[in-house]
Amino acid sequence: MDCGFLSGRSNHGKNQKSAKVAAIPSTPAAQAGRAVASSGMEEKSSFTWRIDGFSSLLDKQKGWTNSGYFEMKKLKWYLQLNLKDRKSGDERDYVSLILVLSKTYDLNPDTIVEASFKLLIYDQEYGRHREHQFSHQFQTTESSRSSGISCTIPVETLKEPSSGFIVGDSCVFGVELIKLTTAAKAKHSSGTLSDVEKINGFSAREAYTWVIDDFLTLKGRCYSPEFEIGGRKWYLTMYPSGIDDGGNEEFLSLYLHMAKPDGDASLQNSGVLVEVSLSIKDKVTSNRSAMTGRCQFQATDDGDGWGWAKFMAAKSVKDWYLVKGSCLIEADVAIASSSKLE
């Protein structure tokens, strides 16, 4: 989904070994559907995990099954699978699949690994694979190496013969890496801003976290406090039930705004190109959903912003990201360049 313009708004578990697992799908259809790196790439950017004797896992009680270790972009990872996960207020069993960065002694303890990736459940019969895309900042600490809980589809959907997910008592899962960068985590100062070293030609990347309590009581447009990144002042606007434009009522809308410079003539009539990632996450686990885009902000357009009218279904926010009615909104901003408007 592309970054959109908002105009005129001031705005986990132990490995189960009863099933045989392998990294290569056995059926031609599954192999054809694998998300593999192109032959010109030197570093692997995908992994597929076939589980034979899959019915034995379906009979197990709730718990996590780990894949073997695999390498992507010179880092070691593994997948975790749970076939008995639950959503809040839903009694059905769900399939949860998460990506975990393995312990590695080659990375500095202060390293952040920022990754965009897809988690997949392969349809081995018809090629209608289920894909779920995520962005996550992995860190080397024990509690920050996992991409977080992710209920994907109901187990009953997985088991349907017409779905093509289970063939010959085998099921295939996988991960496809879209983008990965590593950076040194700067020491945190007071407040909720954090710095990351220069990445991919953009200036120092900084993140601001907006703590939202009592999310369910919010109505209409909500504003974050102002914060400073790259010498500019910014703020976020959120619409818990969508903006008032047609068809968005069932979605949370989220935008980043650059505040008009106050008193600094050198910043008047100027603009900046930024790479922005807006995300929502709960306050306890690393469960997160993010959207990323590159946008030009103009200091003269007071109150205009960039973001997503359909950032996330409002129901998904309530089901997955609220902890005692509270959640976190994070804005991760990297400035690419400045420009003078004539």
UniProtKB/TrEMBL annotation:
Pfam families: MATH_2. Residues 1-22 are annotated as: Disordered. It comes from the Eukaryota. Residues 44-177, 205-333 form the MATH domain. InterPro entries: MATH/TRAF_dom, TRAF-like. This is MATH domain-containing protein. It comes from Sorghum bicolor (Sorghum).
